[in-house]
Amino acid sequence: MADLIIENLTMRFAGVVALDDVSFSVANGEIFSLIGPNGSGKTTLFNCINGFNKPQGGKIYFNGNNLLERRPHNIIDSGISRTFQNVQNIPFMTVLDNILLGSHSRIDTKATLQRWLSQDQREIEEAMVLDIMDFLGIANYEQKYMVGQPFGIQKLAEIARALVSKPKLILLDEPAAGMNDQETREIANIIREIKEDLGITVLLVEHDMNLVMSISDRICVLDSGEIIALGEPEEIKNHPKVIEIYLGETADA
Amino acid sequence: MKGRYEDENLYWIPVLIIFVFLLPFILKGLSFSYKYYLFVLNMAGIYIILNVGLDLLSGFTGLVSLGHAGFLAVGAYTSAILVDQFGVPFALSLIISPLIAGLFGFVIGFPALRITGMYLGLTTMGFGFIVKRMIIAFREWTHGSGGLDVSSPMLFGYTIKSDWNNYFLIYTFVIIAVIVGRRIAKSKIGRAFMAIRDSEQAAEAAGINLSKYKMLAFFISGIFAGFAGVLFAHTSSFISTDHFDILLSIYFIIMVLVGGASSIYGAVLGTLFIVLLDNLFVPLLKDQIHFWFNTQAGDIQSLIFGLIMFLFIIFQPMGLYGMWLKMRIYWKLFPFNPRQRFT
């Protein structure tokens, strides 16, 4: 069953066509990767799903909801959360509080006010995130300020923040950017566990081909806003157009 | 008792509250001029209430306000008019007047949805001027620029007069304001405020309605300032437009910055530091200043404030509270690794 359906999506920025008639669908419970050279429209596509960009044409449906009718802060209510290409954390807040930020839509404001004078509210909130922190192996960092933490921890904290909202679909924008080989392998394991243990559909943008080829169920290749190829990793590896884009035409010259 | 937040110790809070209420007695025992010290502390207390609100707005949410004297004026004049001209009891005015100041904050919040930074600073500064003009315009109730005599606060049938009694009234509310401010800062509202300041994209992706929370920040900040205004009007017994100058708004921002933006305790420390410096330390140096600079202490005051803010921004951007956190870590680790960086 198709979960996320994108139909004829077109997005232009003052003459530049960032997305040109893009259509595909992501099935429930798969890891779907978007690859392509810089400027091919991957992040723009994320921003359209997320409501930051309003496309000129096309439709985006998630579980029957029309996402283009929603404002950015309402997207999370339909079960979609995301991470960013450049980590967007709050530096002078603890790692725990940063992750709690993701639970914003799950915390009942009325109940918060009712428990205003007791410490219970805080404990209820923390209980929401502790298992996610254990899951990602960053439980030791909860009381530390985000500002001094290594890049890998900041990336994981951002994924944790996206997971805390209990999404059905998570958009990961280059989770392995700036990571070394070992950290990349850890990220690959985490993404696999997100799919298998938590049952969350993953839409992934990534430049690391080893990572993409090893974990993806299906891959979509974008270039200049157009879909060039869509299929399973083996198909994509041998697709002539993809080879052309990544290796250049001069490969045989 | 271990606090849940920031791994902090909560033992000292009751001790501090007891100290706050014993302080007048200590001062009375120590000095003949204790009444003047209490007057200064009362002023500091009123400013603390306002600065907790200003910190939530400018420190946490990052929406700079240079018009907070305007909110103070709204609270003060509303309460003075309600109590003395419409016969509303003081206790009721303590609830209504802050809400009206909060509504003003709500209105000023609208432009904040579109503009940030310096432009927002200028807009809020404009609000400060508008309030002053409005006070002069509504002469019937406010007596224009001539000022307004205000009755002393009446609570449960008792009239609260003298700085001694005002101290207990004001500091009860200071403690409440600090606790409420801290609860807001550590709840989902406070997290949303900080997220808006540091990354609007991350905030929206996390489901935070930017417009709603920016308006909320202005509303809450207006309520705190209005509350301070009510106490200001009734404890100082006379208010005029001169009390709510643009310079006062700038001093409020200096107090928050020196204390350490985006920490409630920082707002308290910064306010005490600046008010005590202004009223106790500068007068001590009056003769020296006159001798060396051939000028009055009052003239050099702004220069001293400017210099302090300058030094803090360069050497101690996290303010007094940040300094305290660093010191705490330093002593925790003392013989080992004393140059441990603050993380």
Q: What is Rg of chain B?
A: 20 Å
The oligomeric state of the chains shown is: heterodimer
Chains forming the largest contact: A-B, 46 and 29 residues
Tell me the span between the first and last alpha carbons of chain B: 24 Å
- In spatial order, strands of the major sheet of chain B run 1-4
Which regions of chain B have little confidence, pLDDT < 50, spanning 5+ residues? 1-7, 337-343
Mean pLDDT of chain B: 84
What are its keywords?
A: alpha/beta, 6-stranded mixed beta sheet, 9 helices, 35% helix, globular, B: 343 residues, mainly alpha, ABC transporter involved in vitamin B12 uptake, BtuC, two-stranded antiparallel ribbon, 15 helices, 75% helix, disordered C terminus
Q: Quick recap of the structure?
A:
The complex is a heterodimer of chains A (253) and B (343). Chain A has 253 residues and is of the alpha/beta class.
Question: What does this protein look like?
Answer:
The complex is a heterodimer of chains A (253) and B (343). By secondary structure, chain A is of the alpha/beta class. Chain A contains nine helices and ten strands. Chain A has helices at 42-50, 95-101, 109-114, 120-136, 151-164, 181-196, 209-215, 233-237, 240-247, and strands at 2-13, 16-27, 31-35, 57-62, 65-66, 80-82, 169-173, 201-205, 218-223, 226-231. In chain A, the strands form two sheets. A six-stranded mixed sheet of chain A has the order 6-7-8-3-9-10, with helices on both faces. In chain A, strand 9 (218-223) and strand 10 (226-231) form a beta hairpin. Chain A is globular, with a radius of gyration of 19 Å. Chain B has 343 residues and is mainly alpha-helical. The model of chain B is unreliable at 1-7 and 337-343 (pLDDT under 50). Chain B starts with 11 loop residues before the first helix and ends in an 11-residue tail after the last helix. Chain B has one domain (2-336): ABC transporter involved in vitamin B12 uptake, BtuC (Orthogonal Bundle). In chain B, helix 11 packs across helix 12 (264-284). In chain B, the strands form two sheets. A two-stranded antiparallel sheet of chain B has the order 1-4. Chain B contains 15 helices and four strands. The A-B interface holds A 50-52, 71-77, 81-82, 84, 88-94, 97, 100-105, 107, 109, 112, 116, 119, 121-123, 125-126, 143-145, 147-149, 161-162, 165 and B 4-7, 183, 186-188, 191-192, 194-195, 197-199, 201-210, 262, 341-343.
